[in-house]
User: Which sequence fits this backbone?
């Protein structure tokens, strides 16, 4: 309902650079490392033709931005959305670098996608578009070089097409060694049990841990969620199973409210066959989209696009906690207002890091020829997320600062240490 970056005064790229510069000043980051991290390593733009169902040829533009690989291969999702452009991909790639570093994963950061609205294409057109995009990217991706994953409007099926296309470019004997060129694949094609819910689980767990650190729990807490896709659905499911109540949901087509609580499973059943849209759900009523952020609730979860919380709406927010399931949902001005209002923001690079941690497990599973069971995955995920949360929480306490600043200090300091240890910069 609210549109992304371009229509806002600040772009996502402005938002991430602002966050980075603030931290670089705070930690007195080595000036050479600062110059490197303020730029992206590679910005790949490909144009490729695809034959549509009606026989006509359409030309698409795809992007892959590789921000930094000081800590390991580039890692990050692919987004299919009309707002995808090089600036959006640059911002999202930078967030991946901070996120993988914060989580202590042996990865750098990348992001990309195609500028299109998938609703305008049939499934077979989307398959052909994805396969041609993969060919066009060529060796710019690879299992030890740059490993894509799902993001907005892409899913396990998209990843299966990419893996299949990429592997088909290899000799028969090398194919199986290339399965980990993407993560988030379907279980049965090298995918990891639990990767589907990993991001939403991380969102839930970080919220739960925050409340626990204050001697509270989720029982009786009310929340609202923007975006009811992979992240919004799974986060809502885990939260309601632990006693919280979902009051309102917003997607690109509707904003729904039910003060008695919305059934997450019923809403999911309703939305799945409708290409994800929640519109028309009878277990809630439609409300004005502009009133969504101002609803009385304990917790707000933006789980859709970037730059949604801005100077125009932040002052309306009543929730005491904002848990960033989405990447970059709060711009610099929005954040300033929230902090002044005493709102705790669980920052994206911590809150939604369960996804890339799950991807790391899938990558290891494929690399080592193993099959991990769901219980094992969820236990490992929980342990890792708790560890990352604790690190940030300690930094918050030590520095007496907000959660994003604390998370950025850890993430950027780790990259600085790596460059320094390698002796590149005195
Ligand atoms: N998938 C993952 O593992 C991870 C995702 N993220 C981030 O989480 C966010 C959501 O990703 P994911 O759940 O995978 O994406 P999905 O494509 O599964 O879902 C996106 C959701 O956002 C909604 N949405 C899109 N545009 C708007 C808008 N203008 N206003 C309100 N709602 C809107 C969509 O509604 P509709 O269906 O009507 O278009 C849909 O409900 C993104 O920021 C992504 O980068 C972060 C880490 C990992
Ligand atoms: O799973 C991954 O590799 C990355 C997921 C992603 O795009 C993100 O965390 O924003």
Assistant:
């Amino acid at each position: 309902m609210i549109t992304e970056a371009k229509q806002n005064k600040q772009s996502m790229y402005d938002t991430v650079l602002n966050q980075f510069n603030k931290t670089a000043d705070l930690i007195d980051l080595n000036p050479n490392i600062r110059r490197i991290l303020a730029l992206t390593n590679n910005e790949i733009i490909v144009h490729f033709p695809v034959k549509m169902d009606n026989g006509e040829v359409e030309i698409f533009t795809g992007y892959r931005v590789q921000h930094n690989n000081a800590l390991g291969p580039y890692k990050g999702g692919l987004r299919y959305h009309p707002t995808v452009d090089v600036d959006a991909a640059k911002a999202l790639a930078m967030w991946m670098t901070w996120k993988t570093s914060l989580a202590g994963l042996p990865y750098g950061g990348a992001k990309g996608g195609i500028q299109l609205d998938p609703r305008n294409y049939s499934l077979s057109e989307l398959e052909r578009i994805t396969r041609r995009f993969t060919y066009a990217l060529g060796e710019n991706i690879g299992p030890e070089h740059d490993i894509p994953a799902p993001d907005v409007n892409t899913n396990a099926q998209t990843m299966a097409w990419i893996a299949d296309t990429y592997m088909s470019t290899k000799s028969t004997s090398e194919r199986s060694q290339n399965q980990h060129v993407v993560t988030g694949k379907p279980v049965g094609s090298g995918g990891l049990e639990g990767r589907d819910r990993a991001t939403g689980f991380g969102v839930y767990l970080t919220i739960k841990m925050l409340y626990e650190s204050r001697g509270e729990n989720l029982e009786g807490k009310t929340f609202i969620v923007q975006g009811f896709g992979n992240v919004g659905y799974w986060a809502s499911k885990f939260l309601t199973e632990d006693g919280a109540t979902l009051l309102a949901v917003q997607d690109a087509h509707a904003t729904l409210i039910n003060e008695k609580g919305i059934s997450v499973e019923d809403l999911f059943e309703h939305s799945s066959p409708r290409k994800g849209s929640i519109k028309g759900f009878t277990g809630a009523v439609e409300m004005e989209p502009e009133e969504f952020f101002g609803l009385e609730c304990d917790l707000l979860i933006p789980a859709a696009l970037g730059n949604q919380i801005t100077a125009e709406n932040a002052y309306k927010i009543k929730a005491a906690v904002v848990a960033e399931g989405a990447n970059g949902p709060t711009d610099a001005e929005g954040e300033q207002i929230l902090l002044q209002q005493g709102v705790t923001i669980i920052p994206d690079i911590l809150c939604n890091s369960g996804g890339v941690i799950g991807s790391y497990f899938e990558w290891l599973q494929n690399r080592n020829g193993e099959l991990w069971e769901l219980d094992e995955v969820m236990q490992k995920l929980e342990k890792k997320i708790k560890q990352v949360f604790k690190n940030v929480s300690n930094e918050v306490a030590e520095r007496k600062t907000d959660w994003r600043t604390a998370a950025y200090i850890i993430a950027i300091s780790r990259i600085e240490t790596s460059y320094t240890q390698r002796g590149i910069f005195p």
